[in-house]
Amino acid sequence: MKKSTTRKTPKIMQTNESAGSDFVWAAVTIMSLPVVAISLTAMGLHPALGFILGGCFTFILIILEAIIRGKTWIFSETFQNIFGHSDTSFRLLIVAGGALLILQTAFVLQLLRNPNMDTMLLNLIIQKQCLNNTGPLTDILCPTFKTVTADRIEQLPLIYSMEQAAKSHLIPSAVFGSCAVAPLKDVTQTGDKINLEFFAYCQPWTKGLNGNTEEPVMRIINADFFENDKGFYSPQTWQETKSGTAYNHLTKDQNFLLKLGNTLLKRHEETLRMYAF
Fold first, then answer.
1. Is the same domain home to 74 and 164?
2. Domain of residue 241, residue span
3. Is residue 88 one of the residues assigned to a domain?
4. Residue 243 vs residues 13, 162, 246, 248, 249: alpha-carbon distances, Å
5. What is the longest distance spanned by two Cα atoms in the chain?
6. Domain end (from 48, 83, 118)
7. What gap in Å lies between CA 184 and CA 199, rounded to an integer?
8. Residue 154 and residue 78 share a domain
9. Which residues contact 32 (CB under 8 A, 6 or more apart)?
10. Residue 223 CB: number of other CB atoms within 10 A?
11. How many CB atoms lie within 10 A of CB 187?
12. pTM here?
């Protein structure tokens, strides 16, 4: 009896149209994460939040594809064969290594040619040194790059006037020197008159024959200031004291005095650095 043979029809894995749709959805889904994350970061969003939102957008695209097509490209037979191939991991390693080499080369070239990269790196260094206050360069970098707040700018004329008035009254014979002030009470203003009570710590910068700086001069000041035509303030009344309970308490507070002393020391160093150039 003649054995009948039938030709088996090969199973069609996917049509060209279906395979094309899989690749389109795969490309859109894969690119959605970096595109959304970079776009949101460029708009001012935190990079971590941008990455999370990019991942959420990618997940939404996968769900949308499942609703529209009834399947997702991840589970299609074409990509199953690609991901299951024995050389897939090696190919991915080669592609990732090449892409990383290109990015590293571009980054190095930007460091050498682009001045804006210097600003970015300096900001990173400043944030690490000044926010944590643990680095060895904190005392050198932070005062130079410290941002002046709006409140500090508004108080600058009054604080500067207090320091200059204290210097002219407490160390008038010192050619070089400076004063640091600490308000003791809230500012009281009556019309054009501003009543201030503050502690003044003045340090002459002139040196004697033995090379030691002179002793600081400390006083509690109570004065009335009036604004002049240049926007600064001049004292009309001046009372100073170096005795009493409040004075003794402040002069025995070593942390308080150390803070004022460090302020003048940094100001001295900045002045020397400025005149050194």
1. no
2. 150-276
3. no
4. 97, 20, 8, 7, 10
5. 132
6. 83
7. 7
8. no
9. 54, 57, 58, 61
10. 21
11. 13
12. 0.47
